[in-house]
Design brief:
Oligomer: single chain
Structural class: little secondary structure
Helix content: 10-25%
Number of strands: 0
Number of helices: 1
Distance between the termini: 36 Å
Radius of gyration: 15 Å
Number of domains: 1
Order of helices and strands: H
Strand content: under 5%
Largest sheet: none
Amino acid sequence: MANRHCHQCGTPYLLSGAPGRSETCERCRGDLKVCLNCVHFDARVAHQCRERRAEPVAEKAAANFCEYFEFIVRDWQPGALNAREAAARDRLKNLFGGE
């Protein structure tokens, strides 16, 4: 079921509107107003954001002041954002004879 949720643990965000900058997940205490929870986040574009007017944000998993933040509605999949990183680590392990 698609909903708004914490990017870190998948806990649904049930309140209406967008979370405040200091609002955290009730389960894992991860920040909620982060790039990884935004509809504009895209790892394949410049500054990883499709909103051209937004200021670049260095820490995508940390709370920020972006005025263009809009909570994304999606199905939560653990580790989905890090699939590319996991694949790269697997290739390195194979290259250096790791397990």
